[in-house]
Amino acid sequence: MTLEGTNTYLYGADPCVVIDPGSEDPSHLDAIRSAALGRGGIGLVLLTHSHGDHTAGADQLDAEVVLPSGGEIHHGLRALATPGHAEDHVCFLTGDGVCFSGDLVLGLGSTIVPPGGNSLAAFMASLALLQEQEIELIAPGHGPWITDPATKLAEYVEHRQMRERRILKALSAGERSRASLLATVWDDIPIELLPMAAMAMEAHLEKLKAEGRLPDALEA
Ligand SMILES: [Zn+2]
Question: What global pTM score does this model have?
Answer without folding.
Answer: 0.95
